[in-house]
Specification:
By secondary structure, the protein is α+β, with helices and mostly antiparallel strands. The protein is built from seven helices and 14 strands. The model has no long low-confidence stretch (mean pLDDT 97). The protein binds 2-oxoglutaric acid. 2-oxoglutaric acid (AKG) binds next to strand 4, strand 7, strand 11 and strand 12.
Length: 275
Amino acid sequence: MINFELDESLIEEFNNNGFLILDNFLDLNYIEDLRNKFEPLFKGNFETGIEPDEWNWKFGKDPEDVTRQICNAWKADHLIKKVVCHKIIGEVCSRLMNWQGARLVQDNVLWKPPGGKTLGFHQDAAYDDWLIPQTMMTCWMSLDHTSKETGTLEYIKGSHKWGLQPPKGEFHSPEDYKKELNIFTEKNNKQIEVAYVEVPAGGVSFHHGFTWHGSGINTSSNNRRAIVSHCVPSNAKFHPTNEGGTAKTYKKYKKENSDLLDEEYFPLLWENNSI
Ligand SMILES: O=C(O)CCC(=O)C(=O)O
């Protein structure tokens, strides 16, 4: 399903830029089946009978021109789970971040249709202050050919070295999707160098939880669909008091008298058993 080998030069590239962009990752035999999951999911047809945790767009009810997002579709669909929980994703995230292992903290199913609006620039780890350590690593898998015109994902080179800011501004459909990025870079005298994730279907990008990223309007006549695994270290724990970012949705999975992330809700993808 996934074929990929990390090597030293890719690790160095990741450490320099805060992301990796690669053309070949997902086996092309799965692409059409994965694309075919999007309509039923956004219509609320869930194979397992379990609802995803977040769902910002419903077929026939919401405006056509927004970027549609489901969080934790893995709970609703077996094939999505097979992809987003793949052990290679866990291994690559762990090796890039020097973690002992990786858990899925959240997945995303993202559908930016023709005309689909922006997603504001942000840092993923800003949303998980309810975890210790506050970090994240993301694997973004494309089901379509992406280009600047399709409103593909954009990264700011080296921005993972700029520290972490609290989440600010709108995430879905802001008028100016670079507003928060521009405010931060002007205030802190940082240079912006954009890298566009331009890959064929089956391509991938990995990014550090501190890397600034966002995406523009899809001005093409093609869909831009992606599925995403957001990972955290296998030994991450619930923060005793912090309640920011996505805590409202995910802290409800904390068990009494334990600060551990429960396997049932935050599945382990990979762990280095040799240490
Ligand atoms: O696909 C996009 O435009 C944004 C995705 C994103 O923010 C992420 O995967 O962390």
